[in-house]
Amino acid sequence: MKKKKNEEQNLKAAPPYKNHVTLVGYLGDQPEQRNGHAVVSLATKTSWKPKDADKWEERTEWHRIIAWGQLAEAVKPLAKGDHVLVEGELRSNEYEATVDVVGGGSAVVNRRTWEIRARSVRKLVHKKKEQAKAKA
After folding, report:
1. pLDDT band for position 76 (cuts 50, 70, 90)
2. Could you say which of 3.30.950.10, 2.40.50.140, 2.60.40.10, 3.40.1010.20 is the CATH number of the domain covering 18-135?
3. Which of 52, 66, 91, 100 is deepest in the core (most CB within 10 A)?
């Protein structure tokens, strides 16, 4: 009985909150440097083959990545097409926007955008490409 009680005491509870995102994909463009931060456009892709079809389907998602401070400086050398791993947290922003209404006029609507606040950005290198460069 003592052993079971000790095991229960050693179990740790999950944290009450966790906001962690890990993405691996390709840059859609060179990072855009702004006042103290950089904006990075990252593409990820999901592929699947429906049971009733012979052809693969795919969906590309575009993610807005924001890097601040030293990390913003570190992403400067990255270029369009670079393969990267991004870790960070998901953030949302809400703002009011004026949109045109069909038939004339305009309306103010609330908009919500989502972005990843980067904690780290790492450039990934494919072994085959690296070996090919070494042989050349």
Report:
1. very high
2. 2.40.50.140
3. 66
CA distances from 47 to 9, 23, 136 (A): 44, 16, 34
In sequence order, what are the residues at sequence separation of 6 or more whose Cβ sits closer than 8 angstroms to the Cβ of residue 59? 45, 46
Backbone torsions φ then ψ of 37, nearest 5 degrees = -145, 165
Q: Is 129 helix (H, G, I), strand (E, B) or coil?
A: helix
What phi and psi values does residue 111 have, to the nearest 5 degrees?
Answer: -125, 145
pLDDT at residue 4 in the model: 58
List the domain boundaries for the chain. 18-135
pTM for this prediction = 0.75
